[in-house]
Specification:
By secondary structure, this protein is of the alpha/beta class. The chain has 15 helices and eleven strands. The protein has three domains: 2-195, Rossmann fold, CATH 3.40.50; 200-225; 235-327, SCP2 sterol-binding domain (Nonspecific Lipid-transfer Protein, Chain A, 2-Layer Sandwich), CATH 3.30.1050. Helix 1 packs across helix 6. InterPro entries: Flavoprotein-like_sf (IPR029039), SCP2_sterol-bd_dom (IPR003033), SCP2_sterol-bd_dom_sf (IPR036527).
């Protein structure tokens, strides 16, 4: 009999989950079970290939620690890989024991998440362990807790050895509702290459850059740039809603996303000059999205509210900035 342990924690010395799986591993090895452990934090660049290792196991242990919220990214990534690349036929015959220890709130939810995910994959569940352990010394000094761990390991051994059946679960019906990804039969070389691509940040960045370039190309072909760079866009609105303030003089530079040039507003008493271009040393520089600018022009928002709400960035004299809502009544 062989059991694989997949540990999704960070490998900290005081991690209570490590104590539990070490204890269970010792019990299983006493029962002549071959145990192989996979620390996901050490194999993070190869997680997509790990579902292939389930093929040689009679049962597995999925163990993780709830340090803040949830069972951790490494374990979720492993489960995603099982869904995408795992051998569903083999998984359907494999028992899984969930182990979730928590140093904060959420160990029961974490255990339920693992059990539900494995059942959705079609696997067979075993009774697991979950508990709140603030200090690993609590486990080391408590004989009752150690007996519980030993009994769980023995129960897992009996379940696998006797191939105990279990009632069907409703969440297994997801296989009938969702199109299951076809199994991909990969050679070891292909699996390694897939893992390298998935973990290669430079490759992912290159793909994103190519997509952005294609998007820009199609936008140009569709003529959207002509509309974006319309020389009159926004200018008429600022001229029509201008309310002169005697003695007030200021220069505003407003950069709207997707605009190549900023909108310059020069106010000098009763004069208001608006144009697209550039200017040195404006009194106020503003950056905002097109949606925010539209909200302001259609009186759904003021300049000050947009700034206070984080919808725009401003640099310069705040008093001059506040005057925008007085000299432009929208």
């Amino acid at each position: 009999m062989k059991v694989n342990i997949y540990y999704g924690g960070r490998g900290l010395m005081d991690d209570p989950t490590l104590y539990v799986i070490n204890k269970m591993q010792g019990v299983l090895e006493e029962l002549n079970v071959t145990v192989e452990r996979f620390n996901l934090y050490e194999l993070k660049n190869r997680i997509t290939t790990l579902p292939q290792t389930i093929k040689n196991a009679d049962g597995i242990i999925l163990a993780s620690t709830v340090e803040w919220y949830g069972i951790g990214g490494y374990m979720y990534q492993f489960l995603d890989s099982c869904w995408l690349y795992g051998d569903k036929e083999k998984i359907s015959k494999t028992y899984m024991c969930p182990i979730i220890m928590s140093t904060t709130y959420g160990e029961r939810e974490g255990k339920l998440s693992l059990a539900s995910a494995w059942e959705m994959l079609g696997g067979l569940p075993c009774s697991g362990i979950c508990g709140y352990i603030a200090d690993v010394s609590i486990l080391e000094d408590n004989e009752d807790y150690n007996r519980i761990i030993e009994k769980k390991a023995e129960n897992m051994y009996r379940t696998i050895n006797q191939k105990m059946a279990s009632f069907p679960a409703s969440n297994q019906a997801v296989k009938q509702k969702v199109s299951i990804t076809k199994d991909i039969d990969l050679t070891p070389q292909e699996s390694e290459q897939l893992s390298q691509y998935a973990a290669d940040d430079s490759y992912v960045k290159t793909q994103k850059k190519d997509i952005q370039e294609l998007t820009s190309l199609f936008r140009d072909l569709m003529g959207s740039n002509e509309q974006e760079e319309s020389k009159e866009e926004y200018i008429n609105e600022f001229k029509d809603h201008f309310v002169p303030q005697a003695g007030f003089k200021a220069v505003y530079k407003i950069q709207v996303e997707e605009k190549k040039k900023p909108l310059i507003i020069e106010v000098d008493g009763a004069e208001n000059n608006c144009y697209y271009g550039n200017v040195e040393n404006p009194d106020v520089e503003i950056q905002m999205g097109r949606e925010t600018m539209d909200d302001i022009l259609y009186a759904r928002m003021t300049f000050q509210r947009a700034f206070m709400g984080g919808a725009m960035k401003m640099k310069g004299d705040f008093k001059v900035f506040r005057m925008l809502d007085q000299i432009f009544v929208l």
